[in-house]
Fold this protein.
Amino acid sequence: MKTLAIFDLDGTLLNTIQDLGAATNYALEMHSQPVHSIDAYERMVGNGVRKLIERALPSEYANDAYIDRLLVDFKQYYNDHMTDATRPYPGIPELLRELTDRGVAVAVASNKYESAVQHLMEHYFPQIPFAAVCGNLEGFPAKPDPSIVFRVLTEHPTPKAEVLYIGDSGVDMETARRACVDSVGVTWGFRPRRELVNSLAGTIVSEPSEILALL
């Protein structure tokens, strides 16, 4: 039996791509760099904001000092606009409520910087009593390093056999594997199903309600 469900955020709980793309394009424009279509950002997200900026830049500009400058502009814009177009995926609010009604704890483990993760959870899911809401902290490794899963388990101690980790990307499946917890890949996010298959997802689902049968 599973007693803790850990969710990725971007592409799993929330469709954030429009606001992430807009913030990245804003930062690029501020530094006279070429911008990208919003669809292109689906292939760039997943490893944190720093990696997103690095991928969006021409390779000759993708150095730490230059990325740091764009990050300032990205966060300034994103902090003010992260809820402009972002929405929960259909069925996600109902899934979270059903899980908590059944006594299953829910948590978030995201590569997005933590203050943004916390704001988004409070904005979109104010009635959900999350056991832990963890984002990327400066100086800590990003997923697929499993450290963030261990942070969740520190805040809400649970045997690994009772944990289900849910995400939309190969990064998420690798995170679950390294943390030694069962994984669920979702097909409604930013990555194709074949990535989940190639990443050896424990189970693949196409609707949030299917997760309930895995408990």
